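User:
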Amino acid sequence: MVATVLQLSDTHLRADPSDTSHQRHPDARLRSAIEAAAEAVAASGTAVDLVLLTGDLTDDASEEACRRVALLVAPLGAPVLAVPGNHDAGPEVTATFGPPRPVEVGEWRVAAAASNLAGRIDGGVDPAGLLAAIDALDDRPTVLAVHHPPAGPSSHPWFQLAGAGELLAGLEGRPHVRIVASGHLHQPFEVRRGRLAILGAPSTLYGIRHSGDGWAPDDTIPTGGRLLILQPDGAWRSELVTT
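Assistant: Predicted structure:
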């Protein structure tokens, strides 16, 4: 069966739902992204099979904000897989959404890894441990979700992932891992490494334009979410849902 994954990222909700950020209401922006995605999926005659939340669910690491994210995505009626970002508290994300265990969707698997580092904006992973966890699973087509991308349009230190080089080298020898789905940059992008695609999701709240070491908020960068349409034979495509 064809499986549809809705990736939402960098929602930046706060404990007080009346708070604004970048002159926008995070709750309202997330709600708009969910509604747009639901309409797009309904128009295709399918449904969302998994909601994938790739970090910075909160702006203040609060449990209240985490819980509201869960309430807002609940009407989609799909399982939720969430990883923390640098603005989140990992225990609160796990308490709300459960540990990031691999999820099977259709003939695919979606696995996840936390990349947030305490007190830091940049991220890091243990490549050997992550690759060993992947090897403990079967070799069905796989999406790996992580907040910090292992490659992308930014060279600024805040937007890097320690261990990225070793991780990407290891994934080259594991061709069943087809996609790395990430957030953090607030800018949609796609980088290809052979069969592997590194995808960056838009933020639901505001966009950032990256160019090398430079970055700045930019209202012309799309906001919303990303749909991953996963075919049983391992083929896939993605669509941005913009708000």
